[in-house]
Design brief:
With about 90 residues, the protein is an all-alpha fold. It contains 3 helices and no strands. This is DUF6460 domain-containing protein.
Length: about 90
């Protein structure tokens, strides 16, 4: 068995035939959906951008909740501390 055959997993001619058949089927499906290779790449890029933004949006919402709660809790805490300081 040659190094090329070991690398490809089969003889070069059979690998070429398999790749042609799979490429034809994938091209047929992509044409049926009206996709192009650029659409696939943009879709992958947009997926990761949306995932990135979702992470920071979640942190932003979390910090927003903390600040909203702190607007009530901190003044109440200070008032309670001042009220108990006199005792």
């Amino acid at each position: 068995m040659s190094a090329l055959t070991r690398f490809l997993g089969d003889t070069p001619l059979r690998v070429l035939l398999k790749l042609l058949v799979v490429s034809f089927l994938v091209g047929l499906v992509m044409n049926a959906f009206g996709w192009s290779p650029a659409d696939v790449l943009y879709g992958i890029r947009n997926f990761f951008v949306d995932l990135w933004n979702l992470g920071f949006r979640a942190i932003d919402r979390f910090l927003g909740y903390i600040l909203l709660g702190a607007a009530i809790v901190i003044p109440a805490f200070l008032l309670l501390r001042i009220a108990n300081y006199r005792k």
